[in-house]
Amino acid sequence: MPQEPSRDPNPAEQASRYSRQTALSWMGVSGQRALSRATASVVGIGGLGCASAHILARAGIGRLLVVDRDVVETSNLHRQILYTESDVSQRLPKAVAAARRLRAMRSDLAVKPIDGDLTPDEMLALFEDSDLVLDGSDNHETRYLLNEASLETGTPWIYAGAVALDANSMTIFPGSGPCLCCVFPDPPEPGSAPTCESHGVLAPAPVAIAAFQSAEALKILSGRPDLAIRGLVHLDLMAGRMRRLSVDRDPSCPCCAGGLRPASRVPQENGP
């Protein structure tokens, strides 16, 4: 379980801290209380995962699990907002550095860093320990594992990704809507999909889609999943355009309809 917080929350301080958030009619005190009892996992703490974890921590989530296998590098600093030059010089694992920064924001936050790749069994355990999982990964292998763990456990997750100035996100409720395979039946051939390394990325792209992803997470974790947006959201920051694409569950989907779990049976070479 996540590391225990360094201090217990003070009720008066909590009321003041989240007063602008509880003023929202759909959140209120009851929603904030639900959020404070919730656990979310962020898989991949890069440009997207840093921003989403940052927002959830400041919003008052009770527990966070942050997962990444990489160490902090200089090329991360222009967009991965939880890291510093000191983290680079110390070659800190991203999960460890992110957990430190999140604890510094909120001493009452329980946060657990997980440094390394997740096996399919470990991914299942992560979903079982979470109320919601957020995708901050940078590869399709991990995303298909996330999808399969979601289908196995019934835990919702939020797919997201950003390259250049384009970004996408979709909130996935297993059993009551399309899964990732319904929308993207086949992963791209290795090396064929654009990446931040091959096509670049401007910091606003992951931050913008993280804002959308974390807003969806806050709706769900505060007890209002009915407010979550259904469908695939695409942001084109170069053109200044946002589109929401309606997607339906595929009755012939091999994953959510057929029960197949192909990604879990393939050795994973690339982690989050």
Strand neighbour order, sheet with most strands: 3-2-1-4-5-6-7-8
Shape: globular
Over the alpha carbons, how many angstroms does the gyration radius reach? 18 Å
Number of domains: 1
Count the beta strands.
8
How much helix is in the residues?
Answer: 25-40%
Overall structural class, as computed from helix and strand content, comes to: alpha/beta
| Architecture per CATH nomenclature, i.e. the level-2 architecture | 3-Layer(aba) Sandwich
Percent of residues in beta strands?
Answer: 15-25%
Reading the helices and strands in chain order gives: HHHEHEHHEHEHEEHHHEE
Major β-sheet annotation: 8 strands, mixed
CATH topology (fold) name: Rossmann fold
The CATH superfamily name is NAD(P)-binding Rossmann-like Domain
- Helical segment count: 11
Q: How much is the average pLDDT?
A: 92
- In the predicted model, the low-confidence regions spanning at least 5 consecutive residues are 266-272
Structural write-up:
With 272 residues, this protein is an alpha/beta fold. It has one domain: Rossmann fold. 36% of the residues lie in helices and 17% in strands. It is built from 11 helices and 8 strands. Strands 3-2-1-4-5-6-7-8 form an 8-stranded mixed β-sheet, with helices on both faces. Helix 8 links the parallel strand 4 and strand 5. Helix 7 crosses helix 8. The C terminus is likely disordered.
